[in-house]
Target: Uroporphyrinogen decarboxylase
Amino acid sequence: MSANEQQTSRTHDSAFLKACRREPVPHTPVWFMRQAGRSLPEYLKAREGTAMLESCMRPDLVTEITLQPVRRHKVDAAIYFSDIVVPLKAIGVDLDIKPGVGPVVADPIRTSADLDRLRPLDPDDVKYVTEAIGMLVQELGSTPLIGFAGAPFTLASYLVEGGPSRSHERTKALMYGDPELWADLLDRLADITSAFLKVQIAAGASAVQLFDSWVGALAPDDYRRYVMPASAKVFEAVAGLGVPRIHFGVGTGELLNLMGEAGADVVGVDWRVPLDEAARRVGPGKALQGNLDPAVLFAPREAVEAKAREVLKAARSAEGHVFNLGHGVLPSTDPDALTRLVEFVHSETGA
Ligand SMILES: Cc1c2[nH]c(c1CCC(=O)O)Cc1[nH]c(c(CCC(=O)O)c1C)Cc1[nH]c(c(CCC(=O)O)c1C)Cc1[nH]c(c(C)c1CCC(=O)O)C2
Model:
């Protein structure tokens, strides 16, 4: 059996994969975006003295950090510890992740000559990913590992702006001003992203999530014209590999149907749209993931439980539901509040 087949059979009956397939579940599965990270003291300790990108290339550290939230919170899935810019770094783009800032690109991509720097990704460029996932799935046993990548639009935003951006003005200037160059850029990113996801699936990831974190900056018509073809290409590339495909972005209430249509099996929803309304927008044949506001975790326990109960109630309209936050865990979150939330969702839904 290949690593992928072996892992698919081990994790097949997990609550997480059942929910993704819209099958009946023993309890609602839970995991948290950014569950590994600064909310955990053991993460801060493990990362001491190692830069973010460097730690992503060390299989021992990746394995330890990925397992930390599974051990502590008893979540139903692990997410591979990495970052969306890792495949870009792997093909030689000069970039770094600045603490408290995010990814910063030394020479932003703005002309057709700049595109030459985006060569295809070869699996050998990311041997450390294959190695880390091989170690991880042994440790995880029947707990599924979620692989992930950044979607073409969100990666393009970092590459074109040169760093994080609130309004994405240079990205939009390129998109509207030179649609051909834009399409070429997104197509190259789609191929890099597809190759990166395939490496993770071949090594044993049981599901994949495509993060289009910043695509909520676009109106639906522009999403359809300028972004959807590239994201659809990624989903198509990993269709038929036997792993559910999750698609998530922030502020994407008006895009939920299109993000499903792009080829997702599970649509991630932020906290701005209740899941019953999200189910109506997404339509039949998809599961939903979400969507407790991460800031709710700073409220007293009773308030967290009341809000979580609202999420679970609204989720009854969905054909399948994976409980998550509406975006990543905030770094100053009390980790005990997360552990209690996992217990609460499990106990409310039958575990
Ligand atoms: C937009 C985006 C990025 N990276 C990612 C996204 C998409 C998800 C989202 O919308 O949040 C994806 C990502 N980045 C990281 C993960 C780890 C897996 C997990 O969810 O537990 C995942 C899934 C680790 C990380 N990626 C980063 C950290 C913090 C680095 C540190 O600990 O110093 C972690 C744990 C750095 C990073 N990298 C990025 C940002 C915005 C930041 C935060 C900057 C900061 O506040 O310091 C880009």
Remarks:
- The chain has one domain: 3-348.
- The two ends are 32 Å apart (CA to CA).
- Residues 3-348 form a domain with the TIM Barrel fold (CATH 3.20.20.210).
